[in-house]
Amino acid sequence: MRRDRRIGLVRGLRAFVAVGIALVGAAAAVPAAMADDSVSVQVEIPAAGRLAVSDAQLRWGLNAESSSGAHAFGCNFLSAGAAGDAGSSRAWTKVDGLYRATAGDVRVEKPGADGRMRVATWDTKCQDRAGATVTASVTSTTTESEVVIDAGGGYVDQGERSARIAWKGSFTVVMYGGLTYWSATDPVLTVVDGVGTLTATGSGYAADREDASRWLPLKARTITLARFAHVELGATGFVVTPDYVGVRGSSAQAARTSANAAYWGSFPADFVAFQVETGQSSYWYTSGGERDRFKVALPVTVSFDADDPVAPPAPGPGATTAPSPRPTNAVTTPPADDPSNPTSSAAPPTPGGGGPATGGPGAGAPLPGTGTPLPTSPGGSFAATAASTVLAATPLIPVAQHVGGWLGDQDPLLLGSLGLVAVVGTVAAVGFARGWLVVPWS
């Protein structure tokens, strides 16, 4: 009896395969015979539990000091894109064309009086949400500017508590109106077992204190923008505060005391080492200055879909900042003389070139208000190297909406025929499996 049941089951499976083949043939033949239109659907099935993303958004203000008043030459501010060569350590001007509010998928946003984020401009980059110019003497306000990068690609796996998302584009951090600045290119977020890092290719310029006429490009290298001890991957994204408080990142860091313990810390050590060359190192750790509270790393917001952004935390006391819609004019072309412009014929900056400063103190002079000279670039001159290219993961194709749209466009007779074929096939498969039907070649 058991043998007969096994034979019946085998025969049923054979019949099921045969009917399946027949159904495939029928489904292919009927549309071809009744309509000229055809549809081709390609499906990429990601690894189990993984969500493929193709338009993730990264939002970050780095720290409050990056968007505050400077002791001279205006303010510290953020700029989209990798800034070109200013020729010397000097304050930027509007006609330089070095500042950009948007560049490709990168933009700089800041809140207005109503709390909504808007794309910054040259004229508003040093203003708080009330429209007042920020100053170093006022420690209660900043411009609250943030870098926003869309079109990140990769994957997120909540079950494995892992993720990798890569963005294409650059942003620049400018201190003292332009006396010192650096750029981060192609950020990459990596999360493994809930522990995360955010890296990018760092580049910029450094001065030689022994020769105020020299303005040297730094060698591009990978730097760690932030580390995260615990990342909780949400359904649509997450907000996480980088490790800073309690972190030692420099031997020059001030001693930790009961007075500064709440904000004593540092950005990652390799990041600070890079900033020693740019002249900004003390902006990224507790140095004992009056503005140490402004140096604490701000929360990072990552949204898996830029069109459905996660609400970032309020950047200021009592703020109700809401994420802004994606700008329709977010893409701008770099100036013609910017080497990052693929159509530019400009050569990379020549080490040692430039000339005397045209504004602000010369290279090697103390940074205003700090008494710290811009550092000498080790090893003499550096040749700028191309930033590494990060390929985004192939996104998952939303098959359902395409198939649904195709079905809606088909003739009802065709759909009825396909439904009849499916019903007959299902009944036949069950009949063969139960032994009610027998195929002639069994």
Offer a quick outline of the entry:
This protein has 442 residues and is of the alpha+beta class. The protein contains 4 helices and 14 strands. It has 2 domains: 2-43 and 399-434; 51-303, no CATH class.
Summarize the SSE layout with pairings:
Layout: H1 2-34, E1 51-60, E2 77-80, E3 102-103, E4 106-111, E5 117-119, E6 146-157, E7 162-166, E8 170-175, E9 180-192, E10 195-208, E11 211-217, E12 221-228, E13 237-240, H2 269-278, E14 300-303, H3 399-408, H4 412-434
Antiparallel strand pairs: 1-6, 1-14, 2-8, 3-4, 4-5, 4-6, 6-7, 7-9, 8-9, 9-10, 10-11, 10-12, 13-14
Helix pairs in contact: 1-4
Q: Give the termini separation.
A: 18 Å
Mean pLDDT: 73
Structure summary, number of beta strands: 14
Main sheet summary: 14 strands, antiparallel
List SSEs in N-to-C order.
Answer: HEEEEEEEEEEEEEHEHH
Please state the structural category. alpha+beta
Specify the overall morphology: globular
Q: Helical segment tally?
A: 4
Poorly predicted regions:
1-35, 316-322, 328-418
Radius of gyration: 30 Å
Can you walk through the features of this model?
The two termini are 18 Å apart. The protein contains four helices and 14 strands. By secondary structure, the protein is an alpha+beta fold. Strands 1, 2, 3, 4, 5, 6, 7, 8, 9, 10, 11, 12, 13 and 14 form a 14-stranded antiparallel β-sheet that branches. It has two domains: 2-43 and 399-434; 51-303, no CATH class. The radius of gyration is 30 Å and the shape is globular.
